[in-house]
Amino acid sequence: MESLSGRKKVLEQKPMNFWERIYLPAIFRGMGITFMHMFKKKETIHYPEQEREFSENWRGMHSLKRDEDGRERCTACGLCALSCPAEAITMISAEREKGEEHLYREEKYAAVYEINMLRCIFCGLCEEACPKEAIYLDGPIVPADFLRKDFIYGKDKLVEMPINELEALKGATV
Amino acid sequence: MELAFLFEKLILVTILFVLTLSIAAYSTWAERKVAAWLQDRVGPNRAGIFGLLQPLADGGKMFFKEEIIPSGSNKWLFIAGPSLALLVSFLGSAVIPFGQNIELFGRVVPLQVTDINVGILYIFGVVSLGVYGIMIGGWASNNKYSLMGAIRGASQNISYEIAMGLCIIALLLVTNTLSFKEIAEQQHSWHWNVIYQPLGFLIFIICAFAETNRVPFDLPECETELIGGYNTEYSAFKMGAYMFAEYINMFVSSAVMAVLYFGGYNYPFMDNVNALLGPTWGPLIGVAVMFIKIIAFIFFFMWVRWTIPRFRYDQLMDLGWKILIPLAIANIVITAIVITVVDKL
């Protein structure tokens, strides 16, 4: 039957001729191809020294943001934990005491904020849910580790460094 | 005189032993590097500069792995298998001439451990012993996969040894001697045997691939079908011994091919170079040329490995029995006729 697309190619199984049957020309051609590959550009990225460029909306490790005065933005509303499809986020809230206004922006803050990086699927729903713009997945790749308990990241790893400390660190390196 | 002779041979044997070991060790590194290059990758580069310490790391790993001897196995033969494979692979390099006679400290030293007048027979005897390593190891494991792998390996080695021996006969018609030293000397400067025996060389190199169990003839240890073949049950350094034996075999067969067909330490215009550099440095250039040839052959082994897919078992047997052996016999007949005609003229 005539093929509708007109692209059908009927292959006939022809008996091989002498040169095809001794295979050597084909083998040499194949070896030429593999030899030429030695001089091709390598695709490898030497990882620790060299990193692949990420796209702008790439989602990496979470960071809990501070406002312009260096106060934590999170108010422990729990919307991120609620929106998390992997149930990776837990938190314990606490009330801001007097004299802590320079630490926390709202009257309520997260005393404990934990993300289980083994559960997290990096979907970014937490940053979408957050009304305070307190959590963003703008960090690096979450590093490997040996123990499961070490993958539960607390505030020590998640909260952004205060601006003055960051500048002190920059001053030390420069 | 006697003491100096013993001393000289002892040094030569030690150098050769260390050299064989290090070439075999670095073949494992080179294999991974070549594989990587042919596949547009970089290859091992973490252990030392260019990953040059990789063989040491691999060897160290082999030593520290748990050594398992299966309870159903024959314990003595299980240990004897890899030991025999390793021992036999070392024996081959004893008769290979690595260079012309060299003048060192007023003595003329042959760069060959021993020049026995049946060198080629010796090599073939030793190479055919290599089957025992595979057979014993596979049988002693008391495992069906191992046994099947061993049987395949043995039948492959035996089949291809015939064709290999037949092309050596054609070579002997040309050279009239069994001594490696004399064969090497006959190929002075550019009179390499490959010019007189191109078909013989082709058959020989195909058989060498089969004898060393390299791709495309790696059926005895094909990972996909036989789960490692004869060395399924082996672990730690006994496994390492088998792998090492394979690489040493590759080195020895590369050296044999270089001497038999590619002139060994001979190269064009070697007389001029020898006259220029004197009796100490001249032969050393020859040794360097010999090793360049060997390394080129080893590279060829690896290059083929990453190009050609594996043969099916029946194709392997077809190639060995129906194609290579008749071709080798035809090669003998043609060589004999040509030699007779040339002699009569």
Describe this structure in words.
The complex is a heterodimer of chains A (174) and B (345). Chain A is an alpha+beta fold and 174 residues long. Chain A is 25% helix and 13% strand. Chain A has helices spanning 18-21, 24-37, 79-83, 125-129, 155-158, 163-173; strands spanning 63-64, 89-95, 108-116, 135-136, 152-153. In chain A, the strands form two sheets. In chain A, strands 2-3-5 form a three-stranded antiparallel beta sheet. Chain B has twelve helices and two strands. Chain B has helices at residues 2-38, 54-64, 75-91, 119-140, 144-175, 180-186, 193-196, 198-211, 223-226, 236-260, 270-305, 313-344, and strands at 99-104, 107-111. In chain B, a hairpin with a 2-residue loop joins strand 1 and strand 2. The longest helix of chain B is centred in the first third of the chain and has 37 residues, at 2-38. Chain B starts with a helix and ends with a helix. Chain A binds chain B through residues 27, 30-31, 33-35, 37-38, 40-44, 46, and chain B through 37-42, 45, 303-304, 306-308.
Structure summarized in a few sentences:
The complex is a heterodimer of chains A (174) and B (345). Chain A is of the alpha+beta class and 174 residues long. Chain A contains six helices and five strands; from the N terminus they run H-H-E-H-E-E-H-E-E-H-H.
What key phrases describe this protein's structure?
heterodimer; A: 174 residues; alpha+beta; 6 helices; 5 strands; B: 345 residues; mainly alpha; two-stranded antiparallel ribbon
